[in-house]
Amino acid sequence: MLTTLIIKDFAIISELELTFDEGMSVLTGETGAGKSIIVSALKLLLGAKSSTDIIRTGADEAVVEGMFTVDHSHAPAMAMLRAIGIDLDDDEFVVRRVIPRKGRGRIYIGGTLQTISTLRDLMRTVIDISGQHEHVSLLDDAKHLAILDRYACIEHLVEDFSRQFSGYNAIRKERDTLAASLEERTRRLDFLNYQIEELQNAHITPGEADDVANELRCLSNAETLQNAIDSTLADLYDDEHAVVSRLGSHINEIRRAASGQPSVLALADALSEAMTAIEDVVHDLRRIQVEDASPAKLEALQNRLSAIDKIERKYHVKADQIPDFLAQLEAEQKTLVLSDERIAELDAQLAQKQKELLELASELSKYRQSAALKLSAEATEGLHLLAMENASIDIQCSSSSSFDDLRSTGADDIRFLLCPNPGESPRPLAKIASGGELSRVLLALKRALVEKDDVACYVFDEVDTGIGGLTATHVANMLKEVSRCHQVLCITHLASIASYADAHFRVSKSVVNDRTQSKISLLNESERVEEIARMLGGTSITAKTLDHAAEMIAQARDSFTPKPKS
Fold first, then answer.
1. More exposed terminus of the chain, fewer Cβ within 10 Å: N or C?
2. Quick count: other Cβ atoms within 10 Å of Cβ 109?
3. What is the pLDDT of residues 280-290, one digit of tens each?
């Protein structure tokens, strides 16, 4: 539902913040005070087209911002929010619309920049504004089937049908793939056989490319390594003046000369240990066998590395991934080889599935036709209470017995139609011209769907057009009834409707510093009595008018009796 509405520099509104609660809220005020501006601002939050004409004179931009709460069980809204990457931690999200005088407008949902189409898709699951066709979900023929299913309490059956229908399509897709032309399958199988044979003959193992490359590097340095070892052995041990021979002579000279000098003898011992270490290294160097880097072996390694690289480039797959890739090819090969047997098996499955789906679709059609009669009667009853005694709601159910006409929802097309007068043909709701008539039709439908419709907030504009007296009281009672399950915002000129409100806002207009601006105030109990008295008596507000207004509010509280839950 809508909890907070902020409007800045919009038409004659300088800055405004409204807080709404559950139940029924009404906005009243003199004609031209700015009530329609609130509806226009809400339209922007629902994705209506913007214009720089709405920007307050002297301002650079107009801003409309709304905070909404959404129940996590509200599947349509939650699905949309998840789709745009918004994860609700506290059940709240903010929609912000900025209309600059220059440049492109901006839309933010949950602080993230979004497109107008995304805004429209999300908000049509959250709020309806009656009288504006682009914002009323009940005017969308595509939604009528889902609404009727919700009313009939068969959504679980529809979900089961949808799952089975998806399963049928998966089988059908596999069958169609296998049933490609014999020539194409033969050509594909020959190609797979060639690829599999080539990969199997290549005998490429994981890590082999790195091993070959390392071995090739080692062999390329073999001659240099052998020369380094020979040179080192010669200098350290083999030559006439090798390091070990000369070091031994020096150690003996130091020992003879340092008799009686322990510190010098210790150094001689250290040199002796170093010589021993060098002799150990010489021994280890002699044991090293440098692999023969023959031209033939180098060529063989280079050829192997080139063959691996060629396979990688040809199949666009790394050498380590070749075993998995080969397994995929072999699986496809097996599928094609067994395709004829599999096609016959799938054909049998499809025939059985078709029979089951047609039976389920027929069952859904019976539920829908029965629910359509009940919903039609209940909605028509609501119309009669709203001074449309000759009108009726007709729910058109078109069903098909052909399997080719089945969809994921069954075999039915559902449309809500209005017959305004006896003898006239029913018409689609979207083609109703009168805003006041449309509001009452929608109110009658929403009354019937009060516990079924998942739109959280209803906004009624012009709901009281062309009515009064007892009919207005019926409208008020119906709005109150709807507000028990949905938030209701209603703009009205009728005291009999305003008296039923849970929250009453007054819209007024004044001139401040030579500038006209609109103001909206939440009324307390005494202010509310005064406002309803004004609506009753105009400028002549007497004690009697005030008493009448207070009595209307009291009667509204006492007289409302909600429709029994089904």
1. C
2. 23
3. 888 888 887 65
Q: Which helix (H) or strand (E) segment is 506 a member of?
A: strand 503-512
pTM, full prediction: 0.59
Q: Which residue has the tokens 């939050």?
A: 45
Closest-CA residue to 438 (of 66, 176, 75, 138): 138
pLDDT of residue 133: 47
- Angle, helices 469-483 vs 543-559, to 10°: value is 50
Q: Identify the DSSP state of 562.
A: P
Residue 330 belongs to what H/E stretch?
helix 322-337
pLDDT, one tens digit per residue, over 146-192 is 889 988 989 889 999 999 999 999 999 988 887 776 678 788 889 99
Q: Is the dihedral of CA 169, 173, 174, 175 positive or negative?
A: positive
pLDDT band at 565 (very low <50, low <70, confident <90, very high): very low
* One-letter amino acid for residue 383 of the chain: L
Give yes or no for a contact between 369 and 393, defined as CB atoms under 8 angstroms apart.
Answer: no
Q: What is the distance between the alpha carbons of residues 319 and 177, in angstroms, rounded to a whole number? A: 30
Instruction: Give the residues across from 266 on adjacent strands.
Output: none
CA distance 108 to 64: 11
Question: How long is the chain?
Answer: 566
The rounded distance, in Å, linking the Cα atoms of 198 and 193 is 9
Q: Which residues neighbour 347 within 8 Å (Cβ) at sequence distance 6 or greater?
A: 175
Q: Which positions ≥6 away from 361 have C-beta within 8 Å?
A: 161, 406, 410, 411, 412
Q: What is the phi/psi pair of residue 511, to 5°?
A: -110, 120
Contact (CB, 8 A) for 86 and 122: no
- Rounded to whole angstroms, how far apart are CA atoms 149 and 400? 17
346 phi and psi angles, rounded to 5 deg: -70, -35
DSSP string of 32-94, one letter each residue: TSSHHHHHHHHHHHTT----GGGBPTT-SEEEEEEEEE--TT-HHHHHHHHHTT---SSSEEE
Q: Nearest-5° angle of CA 132, CA 138, CA 144?
A: 150
Say how many CA atoms lie within 13 Å of 427 toward its Cβ: 14
Contacts 24+ apart (CB under 8 A), 85-90: 85/112, 86/110, 86/112
The domains of the chain are located at: 1-126+455-566
Most confident of 19-23, 263-267, 298-302, 418-422: 19-23
**Window from 33-37, 151-155, 171-175, 492-496 with minimum mean pLDDT:** 33-37
Q: What percent of the chain has pLDDT over 90?
A: 34
CATH fold group of domain 1-126+455-566: Rossmann fold (3.40.50)
Closest CA to 41 of 62, 20, 23, 59: 62
Instruction: Give backbone dihedrals phi and psi of 3, rounded to 5 degrees, phi first.
Output: -105, -35
Give the other-Cβ count within 10 Å of 352's Cβ. 11
Fill in the DSSP letter of residue 137. Answer: G
